[in-house]
Amino acid sequence: MRRELSVTVAWAALLLVLAFAAPSFFSLSNLRDVTVANAPVLLVAAGMTLVIIAGEIDISVGSQFALLSVAAGVAAKSGVPMALMVPVTAVAGLALGALNGGLVANLRIPSIVATLAAMIALRDALRWATGGAWIEGLPSRFQWFGLPQGGGEILLVAVCALIYGALAWALRNLSAGRFLYAVGSDREAARLAGIPVTRVLFAAFALMGALTAVAAAMNAIRFREIQSNTGIGLELKAIAAVVVGGASITGGRGTFTGTLLGLGLLATIGPALTYLGISPYWEKAIQGAIILCSIAFDALPARLTSRTKEAKLARA
Amino acid sequence: MLLRVHNISKSYGGVQALKRVHFELEAGEIHALVGENGAGKSTLIRVISGAVQPDAGFLEVDGKRVVIEDPLASKALGIAVIYQQPSLFPSLTVAENIGLALESVSLWRRISWKERGRVARDLLERVGARFGPEHLCGELSMPEQQLVEIAKSIGANARILILDEPTASLTNREVDKLFDVLRAMRERGTGIIYVSHRLDELQQIAGRVTVLRDGASLETAPMSSVSREDLVRMMVGREVSSVFPKRNGPLGDVVLDARGVSSPECGIRDVSLTVRAGEIVGLAGLVGAGRTEFAEILFGIRRAGKGTIQIGNREVAPGSPEDAVRLGIAYVPEDRRRNGLILEMPVAANATLGMLSRQPGLRALDFTWERDLASRYALQLGIKTASVDAPAKTLSGGNQQKVCLSRWMATQPSLLILDEPTQGVDVGAKAEIHSLMVEFASKGIAILMISSELPEILGMSDRIAVMREGSIAGVLSRSEATQQTVLSLALGLGEEARA
Fold first, then answer.
1. At CA A275, angle to CA A269 and CA A281, rounded to 5?
2. How is residue B169 annotated by DSSP?
3. Which residues 294-353 on chain B approach chain A with CB closer than 8 angstroms?
4. For residue range B394-444, what is the model confidence (pLDDT) as tens digits?
């Protein structure tokens, strides 16, 4: 809760600076651009929130994203109706995520290793398959689902927001969400409480894949052709949003509100620099600084209160 | 006077942990320190070891006033503390662990492996260890790790040795071995402060005893002049019947019927055991006799190679805790801090976790129901917590144990397995947990209780199964069971005992 507050304050401060220094940032067209470009990222960050709460990580989502973008294009070109394109891509994503889930949950390979392998293998397989070529000649109904741009944008943002909201509700209100936190906090204790740990982990990764797929499809429809090398660094963007949003990288802690705020803050920085006339090369440095600050924010109060904790321990 | 604690006070925030505590330790003395959880024993140890600074009062070592700024300073004064959980590096060898404790800590220093091994071997011999310095500490048993800790303190020439609940996870034979080592140290003039909940042991080992209650030192007396009952009365400040709750409920049908259960990988051989509804069966034996392993087979954590397990006339083969929970088996593990509760989660969420895990995951939570249920159990089991929304980690050990119990009570199990249910729990909470067990049994739950504490085994059980080296050495009825018969079965002295 504290973290959500501090991220909100930081974000508000940034927006306040922009309001004075570069009021044109708040032009409708800019806000629309920023929102539309980041809505798909939000879905990836949603999946990442689940995976990180479970105490794992998935660094293959950038490669998955590229592969699934291409898959969405290929599906559309091969005559899959647009209404079915998103579900078809989602199933492909579910399969990719299930692959990671199988490696991590069933074969117990550390997720950083398993998804590193997936990250490299998927990216290179895609390069080999496409020869680096973009997917062109998409059906005319592909871009913006054949709607005018404004309508397409609204649909895109609405779909992403709806999915995000549903997941946020589910994480809080379904017992599966409770299991996820339990597994991330203390895997052994969760297992002894009778929680199906393997299935929970598997589901988190599978869902991550499906969400990446929807994100890839939603992102792809913004353009007339599909780059086959898209999504580079997306995994870091998503992880950064989740961590800035207050999730613990060791699992058991994190919220969708936090992730939303974290992504909001990080996504504002790039365009803000442009509007403030600062070199865009600073973007990564500032994002890095924010990540560091948010971690320090966790560590410092913990150090300051360690004395009172000691007291509690001593009494116990 | 080796060590004198003079009028020490310490408060944390608003809580007075120590109030003008006096304590004296002579060279060549084993001095017991007892008190309920929260009485201030740990804080006193922390003050002596330099982990915290007192607000008032002072310490004297050898009659000279000293300020112990940090643990390093206490080490220099010859003070060593051995905590309940040995603090060894599991992936380093015994020699490396001892070396780290004794050798210089400068970064750029050449290690003499030969010397290190020699020192370690020498120390291990002095504590009577039967393992070499080349073993990885993570592979040693708990008592063996404790010996390594003691070896470290001897190597550091400790003159003041503080042991905090050293026997909590030891069996009687291991305790005897530990006591031999301590007595030898005493003969060499070491002053030993011995903290324990096991009052019977103190009578064997300690010369004097000091009782702490609510942060104050109540009394110091020669051990021989106080009885166990006196100590309990002083610790608690009220009369606690050391008598176990009586009950004479009728026994129901057989709930658990294990036949010939074997598992070569964890050394379980041909274990057959039945538990009836409403019955408490005690599972006694030395640590390492396979009691926990057998319980883990029943709960699906480990797999049985051979044999059959029937739960209520139905043959089952729990492959995971998840299966076991669905079959109506509940298991409260030994190490509840590590394996029992999700400490970050609220009490209420912990209490309902067992029920939730029996149902499909895509089910909406009912927070009102959850809080009501948790509050009801908190009231019923006497769980002391600020609120059921408080994280489980804020509760004391005994209350955590009760939360764990409530989680499984809520699942209405037919078989409840308790592994060391009162280990590390203070006297008052212990009695409460015992009466809860009786209450559960009277509701027709079959209870299998693993305990290393003989009075508990004898007092609580309708029948006692004694395990030795992975097998059932014998099953005793309540009338047959005495400390003697249980022990001799556990040690494999059955024939001699009867002769």
1. 55
2. T
3. 299, 301, 320-322, 324-326, 331, 333, 338-345, 349, 353
4. 887 778 888 888 898 888 899 999 998 887 677 777 888 888 899 889 989
In this structure, are strands B314-316 and B329-332 parallel, antiparallel, or unpaired? unpaired
Across A7-21, A298-312, B101-115, which has the greatest mean pLDDT? A7-21
Per-residue pLDDT tens over the stretch A275-289? 998 888 888 898 888
Region B77-92 average pLDDT = 87
Side chain identity at residue B346, one-letter code:
P
**Residue A159 contacts B, CB cutoff 8 Å:** no
> Nearest 5°: phi and psi at B362?
-90, 65
Residue A311 forms contact with B (CB below 8 Å): yes
Strand order in B314-316's β-sheet?
B268-276, B254-263, B306-311, B314-316
User: Which residues fall within 8 angstroms of residue B179, CB to CB, at 6 or more apart?
Assistant: B201, B204, B205
B12 vs A308, B78, B84, B393, B420, CA distance in Å? Answer: 7, 27, 23, 18, 31
* Contact assessment for residue B223 and residue B202, using Cβ atoms and an 8 Å cutoff: yes
* Cα–Cα distance measured from residue B413 to residue B409, given in angstroms and rounded to the nearest whole number: 7
pLDDT tens, B252-268?
Answer: 899 999 999 998 888 88
B265 or B472, which is more confident: B472
Is the pLDDT assigned to residue A144 strictly greater than 80? yes
Q: Counting Cβ atoms within 10 Å, is residue A101 exposed (0-12), middle (13-18) or buried (19+)?
A: buried
On whether the CB atoms of residues A163 and A214 are closer than 8 A, the answer is yes
Q: Determine which helix (DSSP H) or strand (DSSP E) holds A14, and give its type and residue range.
A: helix A2-21
pLDDT above 50 for B240: no
Query: Which residue among A177, A178, A308 sits closest to B13, beta carbon to beta carbon?
Result: A308
Q: Please report the pLDDT score of residue A208 as a whole number.
A: 98
The residue among A185, A310, A315 with the most chain B CBs within 10 A of its CB, best to mutate, is A315
Q: Using a CB-CB distance cutoff of 8 angstroms, which residues of chain A are in contact with residue B43?
A: 314-315
Q: Are B128 and B181 in contact (CB under 8 A)?
A: yes
The ipTM of this complex is: 0.81
Which tokens hold the place of A213? Answer: 């797929």
